[in-house]
Amino acid sequence: MRALLGGNVRTMLTGSAPIDKVVIDYLKICFSCPILEGYGLTESAAATCITDVEDTVTGHVGGPCESVKLRLKDLPEM
């Protein structure tokens, strides 16, 4: 699969919607490269969180980007 894309694939990135972890794991095997998942909002910052290239665990979008400040807010009604 990697050779079909020219053989120079080093990293892939996805960012529009969550992808099932089984699919991400399968793609990592097919393309023999890390696949990063990103999360963000077009209205605020395109990239808010992204997985680290050395993180091999799937099922999360990773930590915040360096230029982003996140805050957790307690909502008693929830």
Annotate the secondary structure layout.
Blueprint: E1 12-14, H1 21-31, E2 35-41, E3 45-50, E4 63-64
Parallel strand pairs: 1-2
Antiparallel strand pairs: 2-3, 3-4
Summarize the structure.
With about 80 residues, this protein is α+β, with helices and mostly antiparallel strands.
Overview of this protein structure:
The protein is α+β, with helices and mostly antiparallel strands and 78 residues long. The protein has one domain (3-62). The chain has one helix at 21-31; strands spanning 12-14, 35-41, 45-50, 63-64. The protein has a 4-stranded mixed beta sheet with strand order 1-2-3-4. A hairpin with a 3-residue loop joins strand 2 and strand 3. The longest helix is centred in the middle third of the chain and has 11 residues, at 21-31. The model has no long low-confidence stretch (mean pLDDT 85).
The helix/strand class is: alpha+beta
Tell me roughly what share of residues is in helical segments.
10-25%
Strand content: 15-25%
How many individual β-strands?
4
Rg computed from alpha carbons, rounded to a whole number of angstroms: 15 Å
Counted by DSSP, the helix tally is 1
Provide the spatial order of strands within the biggest beta sheet: 1-2-3-4
Topology order in helix (H) and strand (E) letters: EHEEE
Question: What coarse outline follows from CA principal-axis ratios?
Answer: elongated
Biggest pleated sheet: 4 strands, mixed
Average pLDDT level: 85
